[in-house]
Design a protein that fits this description.
This protein is α/β, with parallel strands linked by helices and about 260 residues long. Helix content is about 35%, strand content about 25%. A 6-stranded mixed sheet has the order 5-6-8-9-10-7. Helix 2 packs parallel to helix 3 (about 80-90). The relative contact order is 0.17.
């Protein structure tokens, strides 16, 4: 398999083209020759010098990440862009990126992974964006209390030792849960409109406090990184089934 074949298979699985006009990220193969042979693929949440160097140490030909290095293109390859691109080129490592497609995929996506942790049933797409979705919604098998849901997240998410923050303004029993990982608090209005009990996301904004309080809904802030490890790990399992060696690079930020 070469880079072009790997990229095409991932693009097909993730419906990358559907998000082309919605995502600032340049999803797909961002760096690397299409003809490069792929025997080993590394996976990480972020494309940074640290994760690129560790992919090199692992002998990877390709690094697959959720957060890439091109957000609307480059005017100049300087600073952090130069450092990251140089790290890739120095060791002949290609970079494949999936941002919003990997957030919203209903099987391999980040929100789907959080829904698995919470054992949610009756799932449906959530987090509408331009006709596509970047999250998931489901029902708790047994209702959660606020403490129990927070403890479940803390036990299963790579938070870097940070506590789960909770805006505790919803019902005593949590049954209906919406999830948009990363910076997903902007979908609080949709969660309120759909009358869910809690929104689980990564990081918050100041306005969310009063909006959640006035609407009577819980908001769980579990960390941007912590909520977005699931997608790349699911892709690692998928690519491993294609007969390619894989490595997962964990580098929690606590944010």
């Amino acid at each position: 398999m070469n880079c072009s074949e790997l990229s095409a298979r991932l693009d097909d699985e993730l419906a990358t083209a559907a998000y082309a006009d919605l995502d600032a990220s340049a999803n797909g193969l961002q760096v690397g020759p299409e003809t490069q042979q792929v025997d080993h693929v590394a996976f990480a949440v972020d494309a940074a010098v640290e994760t690129i160097d560790r992919a090199s140490d692992a002998g990877a030909d390709v690094l697959v990440t959720h957060h890439g290095i091109s957000w609307g293109g480059f005017e100049r390859v300087t600073g952090k862009q130069y450092r990251r691109i140089a790290a890739l080129l120095d060791d002949d490592i290609a970079l494949y990126v999936s941002h919003l497609p990997l957030d919203g995929h209903q099987e391999f996506g980040n929100a789907a992974g959080v829904a698995d942790v919470l054992d949610l049933g009756n799932r449906s797409p959530f987090g509408e964006l331009g006709g596509e979705y970047i999250g998931q919604r489901g029902d708790a098998t047994d209702p959660y209390t606020v403490d129990a849901l927070a403890e479940r997240l803390e036990a299963n998410l790579d938070t870097g030792g940070q506590d789960i923050q909770v805006l505790d303004f919803g019902p005593a029993q949590i049954r209906d849960v919406a999830i948009v990982t990363g910076s997903g608090v902007d979908w609080l209005d949709e969660a309120v409109e759909k009358d869910v009990d809690a929104l689980v996301t990564g990081e918050g904004k100041g306005k969310a406090y009063h909006e959640a309080r006035e609407a009577g809904i819980h908001v769980f802030l579990a960390g941007h990184y912590a909520t977005e490890t699931f997608g790349v790990q699911a892709l690692q399992e998928l690519v491993g089934e294609w007969g390619v060696d894989t490595t997962y690079i964990d580098h929690p930020t606590g944010l």
